[in-house]
Amino acid sequence: MKTRVKVCGITNLDDALCAVDAGADALGLVFYPKSPRYVDPDGAREIIRLLPPLVTVVGVFVDAPIQTVREIETYCDLGLLQFHGNESPEYCAWYTGRVLKAFRMRDANVLDEMKRYDVSGYLLDSFSEKGYGGTGELFDWSLARSAAARKPVMLAGGLTTENVADAIAAVRPFGVDVSSGVERAAGKKDPGKVQQFLQAVRRADTTIYAEGAGS
Fold this sequence. Notes:
CATH class: Alpha Beta
CATH topology: TIM Barrel
Radius of gyration: 16 Å
Mean pLDDT: 91
Shape: globular
CATH architecture: Alpha-Beta Barrel
Order of helices and strands: EHEHEHEHEHEHEHEEEH
CATH superfamily: Aldolase class I
Strand order of the largest sheet: 1-2-3-4-5-6-7-8
Number of helices: 8
């Protein structure tokens, strides 16, 4: 079992290539103008154009008009859409490709809300009054374990090199999503932290899943 890794909040080519070189499976580009990690479509398109093949680029949107999402998805050639706001099940259903719906894990009631969404997977993030994602705050991983029994889960919310192994052991997610945990400033990745985070994930996979196979 390999835990997939998405490095989110990419704002420049150097950070994108650093994440890919470290072994990231996916990169998240945020198209939410209020985010400190916002990247405009022209900048995003240039980053994507210079990426090596087989890297999934995820476009992150927050309550954007459908037409805006369509235009950016086509213009930038995005591989996956992530809806990180209060988008309805009907909103998510208009797109025929793969959709990752983010849920801010305030309490167990969110698990019932998830049942209404027919999407490719869930991204689980911390609930915070500070904003939509990238807050560096943790949440109750037992909620994530319950969600992971239903659909593929990308676990986010305050993950760092120091806690990602515990998160993988507790949740067994399809993947993990990191943003602020590998930054030196909002929207600026720290190459050393990116490398260390990926190494921590791989060590966790080797330890956790090897032990499971031998039991």
